[in-house]
# Entry
Amino acid sequence: MIEGQEKRPSDPWTVAQTIQPAELASELGDKGGTPPAIVYVGFRTLFVGGHVPGATFHGSASTEQGLSDLKKWAEELPRTTNLVIYCGCCPLEKCPNIRPAFTMLDKMGFKKLRVLILPTNFATDWADKGCPIQKGM
# Structure
């Protein structure tokens, strides 16, 4: 197996298709680069309470409507878009949103699709570590 291609049985992504909070925060702070498109795939109330700066919300990916709205938005993007998705509603291993969103976007052919790894939740693994936050819609 190629390095970075390994994955847990319950995860549809490989290690190479993940990004850690500090790494994403660094990419967001890089004034010389183009920031990735960031999509929050969890629940609206949590998004409004605080999210990764620049992230967009298109519905909860655990619902048919949310997946449909996400797909409609994503159809307009080039498949080479640097795209990061995240949830952080609960522990990653139990998240009802991240796997359906990743699977759909992967099947749509996105080549630079990554998952922000938040093992516990957004508050613990992003906000409490001093990463930047944006509030509201």
User: Anything to note?
Assistant: Strands lie at 18-19, 37-40, 56-57, 82-86, 112-116.
